[in-house]
Automatic annotation (TrEMBL):
Keywords: RNA-mediated gene silencing. Residues 91-221 form the Piwi domain. It comes from the Eukaryota. Gene3D superfamilies: 3.40.50.2300, Ribonuclease H-like superfamily/Ribonuclease H. PANTHER family: EUKARYOTIC TRANSLATION INITIATION FACTOR 2C. One of its GO terms (molecular function) is nucleic acid binding. This is Piwi domain-containing protein. GO terms for biological process: regulatory ncRNA-mediated gene silencing. Belongs to the argonaute family. Ago subfamily. It holds the Pfam family Piwi. The keyword Aminoacyl-tRNA synthetase does not apply. PROSITE patterns: PIWI (PS50822).
Length: 256
């Protein structure tokens, strides 16, 4: 069998679970029937790859204009929550125009900072092409977003990673994404992730929040949050810091 065909037959290490999902279509070139067909094929690929994935959405695909993104998301989300009666929406599959301007950023901001929803965006050109390799790539992205694991480092399993494997360790990552240059008022989006599965360190939890326009530093980085289950966890220290852009500036601002 050709190598390209083997790619999308690989199983995930741990498959995530998607019971309740919806599809939003913001592309006027994609008909409802095409959107339904694409979502079905994507759900099938997720299932083949090792996920537990319900092939039927909560509600039929919802088509809306890009300039109505906030109203469409919040209205449909409310309808879904009424139908689910206390259960959560696990995933939004979103079809975007190939040239979507600020739509992608607006959608991610609303989903992740206002509604708390996991979303996976797909461009129109890929929806029409619907190649197996593309579907497999998207399935891998979805799996990680819903808590699954695609790969595990062999060195992690055998506890041979320097500075990580010798004692319980959390690896953090942080970044700030800024709006398009022509947007002078949209907020920047800050995100912080942390590993949850030492010693494998391949599964990460994340927090996302909006902050001041083009603010490079994460404003709430040192805000204290109380874990209702574990309380305050002590006994650790920073062992290693990887190089990041503007590192000296950040050290001066955060430390001094």
């Amino acid at each position: 069998m050709h190598f390209a065909n083997l790619f999308y037959l690989q199983k995930m290490v741990n498959g995530g679970i998607v019971n309740n999902w919806m599809c939003f279509n913001f592309s006027r070139n994609v008909q409802d029937s095409v959107a339904r067909g694409f979502c079905y094929e994507l759900a099938q690929m997720c299932h083949i790859s090792g996920m537990t994935f319900n092939t039927e959405p909560i509600l039929p695909p919802y088509t809306a204009r890009p300039d109505h993104v906030e109203r469409a998301l919040k209205t449909r989300y409310s309808e879904a929550m009424t139908k689910l009666k206390g259960k959560e929406v696990d995933l939004l599959i979103v079809i975007l125009p190939d040239n979507n301007g600020s739509l992608y950023g607006d959608l991610k901001r609303i989903c992740e900072t206002e509604l708390g929803l996991v979303s996976q965006c797909c461009l129109t050109k890929h929806v029409f092409k619907m190649s197996k390799q593309y579907l497999a790539n998207v399935a891998l992205k979805i799996n990680v977003k819903v808590g699954g694991r695609n790969t595990v480092l062999v060195d992690a399993l055998s506890r041979r990673i320097p500075l990580v494997s010798d004692r319980p360790t959390i690896i953090f990552g942080a970044d700030v994404t800024h709006p398009h240059p022509v947007e002078d008022s949209s907020p920047s989006i800050a995100a912080v992730v942390a590993s949850q599965d030492w010693p494998e360190v391949t599964k990460y939890a994340g927090l996302v929040c909006a902050q001041a326009h083009r603010q490079e530093l994460i404003q709430d980085l040192f805000k204290v949050w109380q874990d209702p289950v574990r309380g305050t966890v002590t006994g650790g220290m920073v062992k290693h810091v990887s190089f990041i852009p503007n590192f000296y500036l950040l050290i001066c601002l955060y430390v001094w």
